[in-house]
Fold:
Amino acid sequence: MSDQTANSPSLSVRVIEVDVADEGAPRSSSAPQIIPTERTERVTPSEPAPVVVRDVRDARDQPRRRDRVMSFGLAGVAMLFAGWLVVDAVGWIVAAFERSVALGVLAATAVAAGVAGGGAVVARELTSLVRLKNVEAIHRRLADGQVLAIEGRKAIADVLSVVPREREIDAAIESFQRQVKLHHATAQQIEILSRTVMQPLDRRAEAHVRTAVLRAFGITAISPTGLTDAIFFLACGIRMVRSIAAAYGHRPTAATTIHLLRRLVIEAGKLGAVDIASSSLVQHLGGALTERLATSAADALYAAYRMARLGIIVMDLCRPIPFRDNEVPSVTSLVGNVLRRRSQAQPD
Structure:
């Protein structure tokens, strides 16, 4: 057996190439295909189902569940007062009948009228509150971004059912129905709806916000103490909330106003950083315009700025369709009207 070490090549690194099927490569997008069928009706494009990705923010955005103990306690207290009133009313009617029949009939009629009037008030409050909650539900559905075609059509129908029925709004609805087509996607239909039907309502709401801004500016400028500032600012804010709700077709009842004020406090609390920025802005304006504006005017300008911010928040709460980036009213334009009037009032 011969020695092969002399004839064998020296040891070195060798590269071995092996052809392997490219199974992990991404598939190329297939070209559109035409499949002949016997169907002759018009083809309506459908949107793909969105992929729902749930994260921690979804859990935070979901409304909190009511405490059952608190609900049970409130229901028990309500039943206590209702039973007390019923027993007192029955006793009063029986005592009136013991005196005379006419007096008993009069007492029964008074109780029936009171119950009917109270029931009408409660029904009106509940109806307005349920209507507002339906609008909030539509707002949350459309704020998700990706809405299925069926859900989008249902949401649009719900929006058209809650807007106020007036001549201007009816004309806007007819314009929307003329512009929207079957080939429009859900997002495009919502955009057309916001551009046609919501614009008249937005103009009305902005007019109420400007009025509230002007009132806050004027009252804060002439108010002698901080307590009166707070009282007048609160009164102007409540009046603005009721006016904006009425502009979007809501009934500004007590239950609706309280619900909007509660949500306004929650939403305004999220904008604490904006108030800090606005405070520095007002201080800058107060230093730059010292010769023209007094300190009270700078405080009034800050109050007007806060009122404008609150007005925009209330508009978004009452609006069935969320604001897009190019539709949000500008605080500068709302407060600028007050500044122009103030500048025109100053002597040269």
About this structure: The two ends are 120 Å apart (CA to CA). Residues 39 and 45 are 15 Å apart (CA to CA). The mean pLDDT is 75. The first helix runs from residue 56 to 61.
